[in-house]
Automatic annotation (TrEMBL):
SUPFAM superfamilies: P-loop containing nucleoside triphosphate hydrolases. Gene3D superfamilies: P-loop containing nucleotide triphosphate hydrolases (3.40.50.300). SMART domains: AAA. This is ABC transporter domain-containing protein. Residues 2-227 form the ABC transporter domain. It comes from Acrocarpospora corrugata. The keyword Transport applies. Keywords: ATP-binding, Nucleotide-binding, Transport. InterPro entries: AAA+_ATPase (IPR003593), ABC_transporter-like_ATP-bd (IPR003439), ABC_transporter-like_CS (IPR017871), P-loop_NTPase (IPR027417). One of its GO terms (molecular function) is ATP binding. Belongs to the ABC transporter superfamily. It holds the Pfam family ABC_tran. PANTHER family: ABC TRANSPORTER, ATP-BINDING PROTEIN.
Length: 305
């Protein structure tokens, strides 16, 4: 369990993290989302004792990181996969960490095997691809068999097989009763991995809820209508007070209405429908709507292709 109370970090005149309160519980994967500059890394760094809070506190299993007697056995973290001494082999990197933390040599072999690096254990980590470096970082996080795991952008640079592997790993670590806290900008991936969500914007908590609750609360289902008679159909839809938005060619999105209502309307007007589909909102839809006011650096729409 990770607990923050009144957690604050001020840089100069700016509060990067502003009196936040949260609990990250064991047994589920909790996603940590926020636009660029929202305060995610600062929060993770404070959890790991790498930054000192300006005010408030954050604890792991009831204790601040710096008060943990054997930190690696309590918390494992992947923050920056490339922050490895490049001249060392993967094995020696892990062996050094294990020795410094009183962890048996046998465990080094176990974690190498777990992340699929056994065959390259004797190669220098400096020559590793980003994907291999991510795996090595994960091996280091798992070394002390900790109950709490933090992953900052863990799927960066991974191929689809690697992404799927991480997703399964995180879910199985949570299913074993561990606390798994993961940040990512990849919404579709997060939607598949996390059950619980913590959303931050401009240093404040914007949402602390389940994945399904978050999407339901911040985005609505809508219906996609494709019709060769759209020119006639569209005004009939808006005349009913239904909000519409253009979709791809020859189709419209209609909000707050069922497919049956649209089908009946089209039938009564003797208009043809070629497609009528319920579109479930995505995590990205919900996230964009919730954080629209919290984004630090907006691209002006005409700057975007
Ligand atoms: N060492 C520092 N000195 C001054 N300002 C900082 C420092 N570290 C972070 N900040 C500022 O604090 C805010 C939060 O930054 P942080 O890196 O925690 O955001 P983030 O949510 O991790 O962003 P990203 O998604 O871009 O990684 C930003 O405005 C950032 O510029």
């Amino acid at each position: 369990m990770i607990q923050a109370t009144g957690l604050t970090k001020v840089y100069g005149a700016k509060a990067a993290v502003d009196r936040i309160e949260f609990e990250v519980r064991p047994g589920v994967v909790t996603g940590f989302l926020g636009p660029n500059g929202a305060g995610k890394s600062t929060t993770m760094r404070m959890i790991l004792g790498l930054d000192r809070p300006t005010a408030g506190r954050v604890t792991v299993g009831g204790r601040r990181y710096r008060d943990l007697p054997a930190p690696l056995r309590e918390v494992g973290a992947l923050l920056d996969a490339k922050a490895v001494h490049g001249g060392r082999t993967a094995y020696h990197h892990l062996r050094g960490l294990a020795a410094a933390n009183g962890i048996a040599r046998r465990r080094v072999e176990e974690v190498l095997d777990l992340v699929g690096l056994t065959e390259v254990a004797d190669q220098r980590a400096g020559g590793f691809s980003l994907g291999m470096a991510q795996r090595l970082g994960i091996a280091a996080a798992l070394l002390g068999d900790p109950g709490v795991l933090l992953f900052d952008e863990p799927v960066n640079g991974l191929d689809p097989e690697g992404i799927r592997w991480i997703r399964r790993l995180m879910r199985s670590l949570a299913a074993e009763g561990r606390t798994v806290f993961v940040s990512s900008h990849l919404m579709a991936e997060m939607a598949l991995t996390a059950e619980q969500l913590l959303v931050i914007g401009r240093g404040r908590i914007l949402a602390d809820t389940t994945m399904t609750g978050f999407i339901a609360a911040n985005a609505s289902t809508h219906v996609k209508v494709r019709s060769p008679d759209l020119i006639t159909l569209a005004p009939l839809l808006t005349a009913r007070g239904w909000r519409t938005a253009p979709a791809d060619r020859g189709s419209l999105l209609v909000y707050g209405v069922s497919p049956a209502q649209i089908g009946d309307l089209a039938h009564a007007a003797r208009l043809r429908l070629h497609e009528l589909a319920v579109i479930q909102p995505s995590l990205e839809d919900a996230f964009m709507r919730l954080t629209a006011d919290s984004v630090e650096y907006h691209a002006r729409s005409r700057d975007v292709a």
